[in-house]
Design brief:
It is an enzyme of class 6 (ligase). This is Proline--tRNA ligase. Pfam families: HGTP_anticodon, tRNA-synt_2b. The chain is of the alpha+beta class. The chain folds into 2 domains: 301 residues, BirA Bifunctional Protein, domain 2; 94 residues, Anticodon-binding domain (Rossmann fold). The protein is 31% helix and 29% strand. It has 12 helices and 23 strands. It has a 5-stranded mixed β-barrel with strand order 9-10-13-11-12. The chain has a 5-stranded mixed sheet with strand order 20-19-21-22-23, with helices on both faces. Strands 4-6-5 form a 3-stranded antiparallel sheet. The radius of gyration is 25 Å and the shape is elongated. It binds adenosine-5'-triphosphate and magnesium ion.
Length: 419
């Protein structure tokens, strides 16, 4: 993409109404725009990152047998009455139509998926079944001060699994756990992420959270100094001892819950009377699991974890572009060479942000490049061209390297660059 046609611009000053690191950097660099507290537009750069995260999640969900669907946001009150959550769920958005009829805006989708599955599933042969979607959720979050970490409208991947037996659910729960670890590795935050025991006593065996250690986090977790097992605050207050190694020595850390996995058992199959007939024709209640990941929250978390004083440092797999090609000076020779590098890299299958803007100094372009955070910067200036070279720099490192033009494309596309 040519930067001269990108309609968004970087912003020098931190927006006054943003406190969190992720929102300040993402707004300044032109990835997102705040419409109101907890509600953001994804601009071209941000949309590219969001789609990369989405595709990683989709690949990993498909690899564990997930079937993708898309369910509606607008939902009938009756379904939420059936589960009791019309009254009980504090953060449920409720809207009325012109005839004063009530609807919920989906905060989660058990109320839609269970009756949907009931229409198609009636025999034990139909199980197990794994269905997921990637879709916007609405929640009346009161403390929407953390940028993309806590939206009132936010993108979530929600997977629901349906099983004949608890044992089968247990097996699938472990598969989802492994898929989640792959996702957090690929988006670049696994090293700081702990699989954490969640919510209360014996219930903890039914639910785990993925918590990424970060000062921007709203949660507190306790990480065992001996075995690295993490526990969230609720359960810690109850047990005060590592459930894994029985030691009592913990580090207290701020963390962001980036995902969670939950055995629902019959919590929602019961109210909707979702059952199948087993091989002997007996009625058996279906047991379920639910597994969520917030896409915007991942994007915000990556920024919280991967940045420096100059801007964002995107992990390779979710970066908006592979290369940021910067053309300094307007000489026709420089431009010709820059365009050739741009075309060659794209032909080799790489995404390039090409800073071809006129009327911007080299200094301004470099400041923007650091803010935007593309992993590899390729600079063409009079100085480098005098040496028939381009200067290559990783966003994450200080050193620069001059590479001679005839060898540039080969050098850039070789994977060696990233290690
Ligand atoms: P929290 O305790 O942070 O409010 P939650 O327990 O309500 O999270 P779930 O309902 O389990 O979260 O949602 C699944 C995932 O969706 C979370 O792990 C998180 O990644 C994401 N998520 C939840 N609420 C938000 C939100 N308001 N904004 C962005 N992402 C969210
Ligand atoms: Mg919540």
């Amino acid at each position: 993409m040519r930067q001269s046609i990108l309609f968004t611009k970087t912003i020098k000053e931190s927006p006054k109404d943003e406190k969190s690191v992720n929102a300040r950097l993402l707004v300044r660099a032109g990835f997102v725009d705040k419409l109101m507290a907890g509600v953001y537009s994804f601009l071209p750069l941000g949309f590219l990152v969001l789609k990369k995260i989405e595709n990683i999640i989709r690949e990993e969900m498909n690899s564990i047998g997930g079937q993708e669907i898309l369910m509606p946001t607008l939902q009938p009150r009756a379904n939420w009455m059936t589960t009791g959550r019309w009254e009980k769920m504090d953060d449920l958005f409720k809207v009325k139509d012109a005839s004063r009829k009530d609807f919920a805006l989906g905060a989660t989708h058990e109320e839609v998926i269970v009756p949907l599955v009931k229409k198609f599933v009636s025999s034990y042969n139909d199980l197990p079944l794994y269905v997921y979607q990637i879709q916007n959720k609405f929640r009346m979050e009161l403390r929407a001060k953390s940028g993309l970490l806590r939206g009132k409208e936010f993108m979530m991947k929600d997977l629901y699994s349906f099983h004949l037996t608890e044992k089968d659910l247990d097996g699938y729960y472990e598969k989802v756990k492994a898929a989640y670890i792959k996702i957090f590795k690929r988006v670049g935050i696994w090293k700081k992420t702990h699989l954490t025991f969640a919510s209360g006593g014996s219930f903890s065996k039914y639910s785990q959270e993925f918590q990424t250690i970060s000062d921007g986090g709203e949660d507190i977790i306790f990480v065992c100094k001996n075995c690295n097992q993490a526990i969230n605050r609720e359960i810690f207050d109850e047990v005060k001892i590592c459930p894994n190694c029985r030691r009592k020595d913990f580090n207290e850390e701020k963390a962001i819950e980036v995902g969670n996995i939950f055995k629902l058992m019959n919590k929602y199959s019961k109210p909707f009377d979702l059952f199948v007939l087993d091989e002997k024709g007996r009625k058996k209640e279906v047991v379920m699991g639910t597994y969520g990941i917030g896409l915007g929250r991942i994007m915000g978390t990556v920024v919280e974890v991967c940045h420096d004083e100059k801007g964002i440092i995107w992990p390779e797999e979710i970066a908006p572009f592979h290369f940021h090609l910067i053309q300094a000076g307007q000489g026709s020779k420089t431009e010709k060479i820059a365009r050739r590098i741009y075309d060659d890299l794209q032909k080799s299958g790489f995404a390039v942000l090409y800073d071809d803007r006129k009327g911007k100094s080299l200094g301004e372009k470099l400041v923007d490049a650091d803010l935007i955070g593309v992993p590899v910067r390729v600079l063409l200036s009079d100085r480098t061209l005098n040496a028939n070279s381009a200067e290559v720099k990783l966003r994450s490192k200080k050193e620069t390297e001059l590479i001679r033009l005839p060898a540039l494309n080969k050098f850039l596309v070789s994977r060696k660059l990233y290690v």
